[in-house]
Each structure stands twice: as structure tokens, then as C-alpha cells.
């Protein structure tokens, strides 16, 4: 059969040729600020490739991006990957030290950044000697305005495109070439780089397009509320053009008011983001009223979502909620619950779509004899799963070629996955394991609780004992005895936390997950400014 | 990222592990004769691989199949491909001479055949010296019954499985290895072999699974009424297990009564076959009444379908009809109309799904400057498109790497393809082209017409002139002047056929298409036993 290199530039080529009028909409705080089409975006993107070549960037070089979900960012994805540069997405919410470490390890030769992140860039500049060029994504900047700082040379995006933009040859290289680089969030250790290839991204997008996964059609309108700076934004920058779906990019702001306006005004049918983002939309609608008539499906990921919350979302949004599980090392999609899953199955994250396989092992890595109905350590295998971290010296796989997710999970008889915690978060008390996630799920159902986390504290007698840390919902008072009462009978008595600590606001990692490392360290160092509710 | 060879055995592995209880149902004349699950089918298939190895078959060897849509045939697909044998599907409706030629060219070392095709095998035996083993697919045969003819040695399938069945190692070889071999139908020339690879079949299945293409979900029930002996049966033997959909195999009989019973009894949601098959179901339901409440979508392919027929099918079946276009050389799926296409678009065959590209050229192969709204010669490119026929000495591609489909087609502004004829069927009259397909479509709308074909006859003055050949619908009389009247004003006057010939039954090629080669030869040799209605 014909040779056909699985390179991601083919997605935008296909969209431009076959769905050329398909729209890309970029907003800022819920207001549309830019509209383009796949045809126009392909043309601009391709000319930006030419400009990057003119700056001296060559096949295999890394180019960092520090940007929100914008048309510029999407153009930069394709401009870089189309000519074999590695698009190294950086999370603007990380610390300067973390960002500098990533940029230096990746040896980024250029950085394309949202203009509002200029202060961050000024701090990064002296720390990152490999960066020769900075491209500022804002069409309001004049060509000459920022030419004085050299090196790095600073280019307004439109000026660069105007001066050096030229048609470039896309693709036509080995599909195993690197396409993207993204660092893990580092909530459970040092951030590590994951190097995606064209082939892994291409196959990941095709996996996402299966009906039981994201299943986009050409007449869908997709709101991308997961950040493009992390893990390919679920691969949707590839999957949406593959089918020609209209793509709505919210910019920097993903508050409930902004997103509700966008969903309504742009006729969004499929919305993708973490649970807290959609709860913001629900809260906003509850406060001001209004409906989102075109919305059909809401895809959530990032953490387990209590069933009561799912029901509340489904009722208020009149849309189906699809839960999912993934991670940076999986490109990032793992499993996703089909849109027609029974309501009772809502907490599970679905079966693995074709192209991904799962197994459960014990703590020593031995495959469990029983793979259904028991909790084990989750290992994964597939065409879009990491084998070796960027610049690592050995593979991160077991003898059967599976990658350790660090998650604890169970799989039901029908093959549906339920994540039940992180192996590193387990608390060992009296030689037995306590799973914080189970306690958090029960406590999280209490209407006075905004967020809950259970960590282990050192204990002379038991080794470790669980501490429950809670953040109240706004304007609510927490009754510690009621929380303990809710746990009785649902978890073993010795799992019940000895202490309950109330804090005003949970520390979050840059990806929005609760930062348990920080919680543990604050607690241990006595830095937790908190009301101790119990003991 | 992890190594992952795109081999088709992974589809059945995935189904067995993640949708192990998913059903495979085999029928005969509308009655279910066998039920299995993906788990059981995987186990039997894999043991059959072991048996094939025990017979001495080795990686790269060809094994022919002469069989209907049965569980045995499906098991043989995977048993062969899983260990790198090439599954060479043969059409039992071809002539002995054609079959022998294909078997000999492919050097098939074994043939697995439906037991009811034993008479065919007895004729083929002496003509096919490379065939060492025959496997008869019927569980009613005793182990010893047919051991006397040697060589070729004849094995009842179940006896072979019992005697030599053993677990075999699947996959784990290069994804570019050959998986299947199928010959073109030969309606427009000598049959030519198309060698599918594991990679092309894998990627084809993922392309088919896109929402705007076949878009199967795990809770779908698929009736496979396209033959497994031709062009991978639309790739559904791969796509259905990929998602764990229940698969209904009708066996030999695809008459309306049998299929209606199966659709109703097995809860079929998606039915795939050529138009005539579904018209048979409609006619049956019209005659005896009844509804098919679970049926949602009917996918048709093989020829253009008049809009009135589509409407009739959609109304009677209460299901959406998706038109499509494909060919053996495309694995076979080309384009497919999305299930939500507007009714007016029903005649178009949809946009190419991601992984396939189209272009239109003139008769000399030059790309048309205007690609929309004009008729041109259709060329295609993609990961599941042929580059070189089996044992051919050169590629069948143009300089840009596109394959010539031999079809004439147009593409509308939205990118939807409409096939408007075969380039070889065009009639050149007075130096200008007449397209028979346009005439046939108009004539075919007449309620007295069962089938219509236009061929060219030699003409001293004009070069060629069109002859209309018609088969009446049962019990109807054809009025030639009415047919001519219907054409006036819709086609140029000089396109109107000089002759109308009525025949009792159209000659069909083995794939069910009208055999125009035969029509032309019968007409020219004066062999056409026919009523001449005009002139």
C-alpha cells in the first residue's frame, strides 16, 4: 500500500482542503476577539514555518511556547511541528525556577509567548542562555517596538510573519520524529519531560475520534477549556481539524461567566475541561439563570468526580457528562466513559479505547491473578504511551513493556476503570494501607465542604496516621463530628482521621490538582495556618 | 513513545480482553446457527493459528478462503493474519478459470472453504498444484470422512482444531507485513491482486471508526451483509472488535426475508451492504409487514443510489441511509456520507475521512485548476490506498503519488464527492463524451425499469453511439417513448440513445455490479436475446 508518514501536519492540511471554511474562534474573557478558518490558519501557520526557518531554527530544534488557548498558539503548534521542530509547551503558572530548568534542559532556541506574559519573560531571559528568539503573540505590537533587546531578539508575531513569512514544506519526514515536549506537573516528584512523536500524536488523535471516546463529528463545536500548554490539550488541536469541527479557544480566562457566554454564543456542542471549570459554569448559571441549548456533552478529567456533582452538572447543563482519566505520559488520554454510559457507571472512567491496554499489579509489579473487582497498581501500554522520559538514561517500563501510572485503580467486570488513588498518597498505618481517596470522596459529598484532602502524618506508634484537611464552601460552617459520622460504617474505624484541619484555601499545583506535597510539608513544618477542628 | 506494531491481531486481542462477552452471531437463511463471544473466538482463532503452523504454513505464505460470512471465516482471518500468513479471500461466485488463475498466481498453500463449496473445490483441485491443504468449514464433518484424497489433504475444520490446535504467538512482526490479498472484480479488465498490509488495515479500521464515517460504538449491533470474501468486508472484521460491537454474520443468504428476520431478532442497529440487498429487505417488509425498531443506520455502497430509493429505504426502515463510495484498491472505504447529512445531500458520498485525499484531473492526468463543481478523473492518496498491484512490476501511481480510480466524479463546495461514472464506460460520439451514468440515473427512476445500462456501439459516422439496455421490473411493460421523453431536456439531444434493447435479466459480475463488458460483447456478437424496442 502507499507510503504515508503519520505526521500531524496532515491534520491541518486535511482540514484546510476538506473543511476549509471550518471556524477557529478565539475569545478573551468570554468575548470573541478573533475568527479564522482552517484554510486561513493553515496558510498563516505554514508561512510562520517559513519565518522560523528564516530565524535559523532547524529540524529537531526545540521551540518553547508560553501561551493560553489562542489562535496564535495553535498556529505555532503547526508551524513548529510541520517542519519537524519540537513544540515545547510550558505552563505559565509554574515558578520561574521550574520554567528555567525545563527551558534549559530542553535547550529551547526560541520561545513564543503571549504578550501578557512579558514580565515572566523578562525574568526568564537572563536564566535561559539557549533562547535566541522570543516571539510575542499579540497583533497590537508594532514591528519596531521591541527590537532593542538582543539577544534574545524579540519579535512581534505579526511583524515576524510579515517580514519572514514564506511557504514551507511540511511533513515528508519520519513519523517517529519528535513533535512535542511537555513536562509532567511534578505534584509527586520532579517534573520530567515527555517527548511526543508525530506518530504517537497522530494515532492518539485517531484513538480519541472513536465514538466511545471523544467521537467528534464535523458538525460539532468544541470548546477547548483544557490548556494547550499541557499534554497536547487532550490531542484536540489534532482531532478537531481531522474532522473539521469548529474549535472555540477561550484564551486565558476559564471562569464560569466567560465560558457560559462562549458556549451559548458560539453554539458549543462538546466542552472539554476539568471538573472545577464546569462547576464554575454551573454556579454561574445558578446565579444568573440562562440555558446552553446546543451543549450535548461535557468531558471532564483530571480527578475523580463524585456522582452527585455529575448529576448536578448534567441537570443544570442539560448535557451528558463523560468522565475520563489520563496523564501527561499518555498523550494524555487514557480511558473515557462513553456518552451513553448508564448513570450509575458515571464514576468509572470507561474502558480503554483501541490502542491502549491496562493491567493491574501488586506493589512489587507482579500482575494480579484477578484483574477484575480488585484494587491494584495500574500499568499501561499503547502506541501513545511514554517509554522513556526526555533525556533519561533508561526506559520507564516493566519487563512486559508496561508503564507504571502511579495510580491505584480497579476494573469492573465490564472493563470499566475506576481510579482509586495515587500509590504515593497511600498512608501506611500499623502495617496496613489507608487510601486517602476513599475518605476524600465521602467527605467531599458534605454540602459544607469545598475541597478535602487526606494526608499522612508521622506517628510514633502506628507509623502514619491520616489527617483530614478541609476547605469550607463559601459562607458555610463545617461540623467536624458530622464529617466523622459520615465516615463511620463506610470505611474501617482505624481509617478515620484523628485530626481535622480547616484551611481557608487548598494549595493547588499548576495543573489545578491539590498539591499534597505542599500540604504535607506545611503540616510537618507547622506552617499550616489553620483551625484545628478535631484534637 | 512506546513501540507498537500496527498489526490487526491487536483488534481481536483488545476485544477479547476488554469486551470479552461481546457476541458474534452466525446465521443461515435468517436463523441463528452459532453464537460465540470475542473471548471464545480469540481463543479458537489463536489455536487455529497453531494448527496452521502444524500444517507447515509459514510467515508470508498465502492461504486462500472460499467462504461466506461466517464465524469460521472470521476465525480464519485472524488465525492467518495473527501469525503473518496472507489471507487471500476468494469470491465463490467467480468462474473456475478465474479462481484457478488467482490461486495459482498467489501460490496459495492452503484453502479454507465453506463445506457447501466442495463441488467447486473438486473442480479447482487438479488446476491448482500449489494447494497442499484444504480446510472444510463445517462442524458436521467427521474427522476421518475425507482423508482419502491426498494431496491436497482435506481437513474438517473442527477435526483440525482438535488435532493440531495450539496457542500461537500473534503479532510482534513488522506492521508493513502483508495481511490480506484480494483481487479486483475485473468488470473493467483482468482481475488484479491488491495486497493489504497490517498497517493499512489497522489505519483503515481507525479511519472507519470516525464519527462521520462508520462511527461504531460498543453498544452497536452490526449486520455484515457485504461479503467477507471481498475487500475486507469494508474493514468491519477489524473495526467491530476494535470497539467490541456485536457482530451479526448472515452466512450465505442475503435475501430480504433472511436479513429482515436477523435485524429484528438480533437488534441490529447498523446494517452494511449494497443497495440491492436493502431494497430486498424493503420489498419483503412491504409484502409481509413488520418493523425493525432497533435499526438506526443503513450503509450502502457499490453504486450510486437514486434519491427516491434512498427516501423509500429511509421511510420503510425508519433508519438513516448513509451512501458511500469505495473500491478494492482502497481497502475498500473511500468516502461516506455522515449520518446527519441533509436529505438533499443523500446522493453525494460524503467527504473523505482523515487519512484519504482526493484530486480531480483531466483525461491526461493534469490536475484540474478548478477542483469544485466540475467533473474530472478521480485520483486518491492515503495510508490504505494501493500503490502497486500484486506481482506487478511498477507502481500504479502518478507523479504526485495518487492512484487513478478509473471513476469520474465531481466534488461540491463543501467537499462532498459524487461519482458520475467510470472513465472506461464513457462513450465518444462525434468527438465528444457521453456519460452513460447520467442517462442510466434518469431512466432508472421510471417505475417500469428494474435495471438500466447504457453502452456504446460502433458507428461509422459518429465513432460511437449510445444503446440503452433495460430490464423490466417484474410484471411491468416498458414504454420506450416514455423513457426517451424523460431524457429530453435533461441531457443533450445527441446523448439520447438511438436504440433501446429489452433483456429479461442483466448480466452481473461476481460482485453484483452490471457486467458491461459482457453487455458490450453480447451486443456486438449479436448474442443478445432481446426485444429491440426502438429501431
Write a brief caption for the model.
The structure is a homodimer of 535-residue chains. With 535 residues, the first copy, chain A, is α/β, with parallel strands linked by helices.
The helix content of chain A, as a percent range, equals 25-40%
Give the oligomer, counting copies of the same chain as homo and different chains as hetero: homodimer
Number of helices, where a helix is a run of at least 4 consecutive DSSP H or I residues of chain A: 14
The gyration radius over C-alpha positions of chain A equals 23 Å
In order across it, which strands form the biggest sheet of chain A? 2-1-11-10-12-13-14-15
Average pLDDT, all residues of chain A = 91
Topology:
The structure is a homodimer of 535-residue chains.
Chain A: H1 9-18, E1 23-28, E2 31-37, H2 38-54, E3 62-66, H3 71-82, E4 86-90, H4 96-106, E5 110-114, H5 118-124, E6 133-137, E7 153-156, H6 157-164, E8 178-183, E9 193-197, H7 198-208, E10 221-224, H8 236-243, E11 246-249, H9 256-266, E12 270-274, H10 275-288, E13 297-301, H11 307-317, E14 320-326, E15 333-336, E16 356-361, E17 375-382, E18 403-411, E19 417-422, E20 427-429, E21 432-434, H12 436-444, E22 449-459, E23 463-472, H13 480-487, E24 499-502, H14 516-524, E25 531-534
Parallel strand pairs in A: 1-11, 3-4, 3-5, 4-8, 5-6, 6-7, 10-11, 10-12, 12-13, 13-14, 23-24
Antiparallel strand pairs in A: 1-2, 8-9, 14-15, 16-17, 17-18, 18-19, 20-21, 22-23, 24-25
Helix pairs in contact in A: 1-2, 1-8, 2-3, 2-6, 7-8, 9-10, 10-11
Amino acid at each position: 500500500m502507499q507510503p504515508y508518514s503519520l505526521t500531524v501536519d496532515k491534520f491541518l492540511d486535511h482540514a484546510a482542503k476538506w473543511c476549509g471554511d471550518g471556524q477557529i474562534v478565539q475569545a478573551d474573557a468570554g468575548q470573541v476577539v478573533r475568527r479564522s478558518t482552517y484554510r486561513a490558519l493553515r496558510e498563516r501557520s505554514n508561512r510562520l514555518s517559513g519565518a522560523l526557518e528564516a530565524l535559523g531554527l532547524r529540524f529537531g530544534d526545540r521551540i518553547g511556547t508560553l501561551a493560553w488557548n489562542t489562535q496564535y498558539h495553535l498556529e505555532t503548534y503547526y508551524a513548529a511541528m510541520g517542519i519537524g521542530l519540537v513544540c515545547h509547551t510550558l505552563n505559565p503558572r509554574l515558578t520561574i525556577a521550574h520554567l528555567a530548568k525545563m527551558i534549559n534542559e530542553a535547550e529551547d532556541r526560541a520561545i513564543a509567548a503571549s504578550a501578557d506574559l512579558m514580565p515572566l519573560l523578562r525574568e526568564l531571559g537572563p536564566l535561559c542562555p539557549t533562547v535566541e528568539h522570543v516571539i510575542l503573540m499579540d497583533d497590537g505590537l508594532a514591528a519596531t517596538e521591541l527590537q532593542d533587546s538582543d539577544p534574545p531578539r524579540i519579535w512581534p508575531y505579526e511583524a515576524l510573519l510579515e517580514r519572514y513569512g514564506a511557504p514551507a514544506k511540511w511533513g515528508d519526514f519520519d513519523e517517529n520524529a519528535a513533535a512535542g515536549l511537555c513536562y509532567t506537573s511534578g505534584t509527586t516528584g520532579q517534573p520530567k519531560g515527555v517527548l511526543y512523536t508525530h506518530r504517537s500524536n497522530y494515532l492518539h488523535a485517531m484513538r480519541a475520534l472513536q465514538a466511545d471516546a471523544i467521537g467528534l463529528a464535523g458538525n460539532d463545536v468544541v470548546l477547548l477549556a483544557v490548556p494547550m500548554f499541557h499534554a497536547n490539550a487532550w490531542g484536540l488541536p489534532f482531532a478537531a481539524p481531522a474532522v473539521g469541527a469548529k474549535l472555540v479557544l477561550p484564551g486565558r480566562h476559564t471562569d464560569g461567566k466567560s465560558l457560559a457566554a462562549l458556549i451559548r454564543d458560539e453554539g458549543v456542542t462538546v466542552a472539554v475541561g476539568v471538573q472545577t471549570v464546569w462547576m464554575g459554569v454551573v454556579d454561574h448559571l445558578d446565579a444568573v439563570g440562562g440555558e446552553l441549548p446546543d451543549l450535548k456533552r461535557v468531558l471532564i478529567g483530571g480527578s475523580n468526580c463524585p456522582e452527585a456533582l455529575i448529576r448536578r452538572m448534567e441537570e443544570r447543563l442539560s448535557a451528558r457528562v463523560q468522565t475520563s482519566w489520563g496523564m501527561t505520559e499518555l498523550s494524555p488520554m487514557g480511558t473515557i466513559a462513553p456518552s451513553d454510559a448508564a448513570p450509575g457507571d458515571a464514576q468509572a472512567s470507561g474502558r480503554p479505547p483501541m490502542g491502549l491496554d491496562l493491567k493491574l499489579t501488586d506493589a512489587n509489579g507482579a500482575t494480579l491473578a484477578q484483574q477484575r473487582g480488585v484494587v491494584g497498581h495500574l500499568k499501561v501500554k499503547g502506541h501513545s504511551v511514554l517509554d522513556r522520559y526526555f533525556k533519561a538514561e533508561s526506559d520507564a517500563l516493566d519487563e512486559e513493556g508496561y508503564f507504571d501510572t502511579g495510580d491505584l485503580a480497579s476494573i469492573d467486570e465490564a472493563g470499566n476503570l475506576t481510579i482509586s488513588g495515587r500509590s504515593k498518597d497511600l498512608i501506611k498505618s500499623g502495617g496496613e494501607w489507608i487510601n486517602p481517596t476513599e475518605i476524600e470522596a465521602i467527605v467531599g459529598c458534605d454540602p459544607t465542604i469545598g475541597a478535602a484532602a487526606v494526608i499522612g502524618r508521622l506517628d510514633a506508634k502506628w507509623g502514619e496516621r491520616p489527617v483530614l484537611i478541609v476547605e469550607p464552601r463559601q459562607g458555610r460552617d463545617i461540623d467536624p463530628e458530622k464529617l466523622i459520622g459520615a465516615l463511620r460504617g463506610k470505611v474501617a474505624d482505624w481509617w478515620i482521621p484523628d485530626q481535622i484541619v480547616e484551611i481557608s484555601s487548598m494549595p493547588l499545583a499548576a495543573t489545578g490538582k491539590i498539591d499534597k506535597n505542599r500540604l504535607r510539608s506545611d503540616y510537618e513544618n507547622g506552617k499550616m495556618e489553620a483551625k484545628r477542628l478535631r484534637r
